[in-house]
Amino acid sequence: AQADVGVIGMAVMGSNLARNMAHKGFRVALYNRTAARTDQVMADHGDEGVFLPSHELDDFVASLERPRRVVMMVKAGAGTDAVIGEVVPLLEPGDILVDGGNSFFKDTRRREAALRETGIHYVGTGISGGEVGALEGPSIMPGGSKESYKAIGPVLEKISAHVDGEPCCAWMGTDGAGHFVKMVHNGIEYADMQFIGEAHALLRAAGLSNAEASEVFAGWNTGDLDSYLIEITSRVLATKDPRGTGQDLVDVIADAAGMKGTGTWTVQTALEMGVGVSTIGEAVFARAVSSAPALRAAGQAALQGPDRQIAVEDRQGFIDDVRSALWCAKVVAYSQGLDEIRTAAQEYGWEVDMAKVASIWRDGCIIRARLLQRIRDEYAAHDLTTLLEAPSVRAELGESQGAWRRVIARATEAGVPVPGFASALGYYDQVRAPRLNAALTQGLRDLFGAHTYKRVDDEGSWHTLWSGDGSEISAD
Ligand code: NBP
């Protein structure tokens, strides 16, 4: 019998995805550039299902039922282009080539456009959940043609995580839509982790030990903030140094955060489209500052300020305030990220269903959270310009904003850096303000560069003769 689906790339993600497929009853063809990896997967897991391993790519392609369904799980960038170059000549019109790696959506658009003429369906697919997710059920965000989803959708849905019987996998839109949604997922993940870090720093500044903070996070995980990232935060904070120094592990980890680039892509893309994703930007910048030792050494030596201690009389009250601030900031990050997706959908002509996006992030992926159920329900019930206006969201933001403001005020007075919390609140106050300082900006631009301005009480564009008689002239 031939294989139902094939996987190229037997590193951790590809092999786990192939095993997941086999566990779900699919016959899975396997191929990896370095054949020893394929042999290793067969030796370790060959008895878990029906696998058809090949050492040669043409044998792999020949082992697949038509139309062929091939999933690539290789390094994004040059690795992906190399595999496309080798496998495409062996495929036929109607076959489907899925890129399950973390490709940049513009690369996916380019590759999809190039293959469209050959009749081969190129399906850029975001997959989140890390290695455990790949094995046990990730969140899957496929793009590509609607037609291709009919053939590949059932396989991807079956191996994805499920919530109440619904798969955490849905067609996101044509060409690069799937990778775009995955990119923003990662951007939100950056913001989420930055906020969690700020919450932890605040709890520590108020005198809690890491063990106590771990318990606070565990408690939060039973309520509104219930999410994978909060759960593992509790776990990390409760962990002692494996070297037996007796210290908490978090205290011996160097405070320089790394990144692989998806957060930066999210912000760059938002900048190009003119969408405000300040919280994600702050998270990316916070990692950059953390990883700038010379800057930090200079700052530590030169700059004065308070000692980052927060004296709290009502400890539980303060903890509750931090919880509220974390929830509010998190909602703003989701709102900004979803706004970026909505804007891209308009720009690129994708039919992205925002309720579906929230729905498939409910489980399997790194940002899975109880909040996503509410976001899904709100988008399903209302045509929202911003998540912030959703009835249940705006009501809770309204109630919790006092705590959010108090936390930022306390942090600022004490010198605890909270760029994420503060930028989220800045955005909230910006979008609700009837007048913004942009009026003065326009005035300044008109004075120094004759950039003109519009008026609140008239049509058209205007310019004041700043160095002339001070009168106003039409600039149309
Ligand atoms: P890697 O990203 O480490 O890639 C290793 C695989 O790429 C190996 O199979 C390797 O073959 C293959 N490869 C490379 Br590198 N260059 C190649 C070329 N020129 N031709 C053919 N094959 C080539 O693997 P991974 O960590 O399993 O991730 C796979 C994809 O999934 C990536 O795009 C990654 O960004 C994405 N992803 C990863 C995670 C995660 O948690 N790790 C989560 C979500 C998405 P070889 O064995 O012959 O060297």
Automatic annotation (TrEMBL):
The active site is at residues 182, 189. The lineage of its organism: Bacteria, Bacillati, Actinomycetota, Actinomycetes, Propionibacteriales. Homodimer. GO terms for molecular function: NADP binding; phosphogluconate dehydrogenase (decarboxylating) activity. The keyword Flavoprotein does not apply. Keywords: Gluconate utilization, NADP, Oxidoreductase, Pentose shunt. Belongs to the 6-phosphogluconate dehydrogenase family. Residues 178-467 form the 6-phosphogluconate dehydrogenase C-terminal domain. Pathway: Carbohydrate degradation; pentose phosphate pathway; D-ribulose 5-phosphate from D-glucose 6-phosphate (oxidative stage): step 3/3. This is 6-phosphogluconate dehydrogenase, decarboxylating. Its EC number is 1.1.1.44. It catalyses: 6-phospho-D-gluconate + NADP(+) = D-ribulose 5-phosphate + CO2 + NADPH.
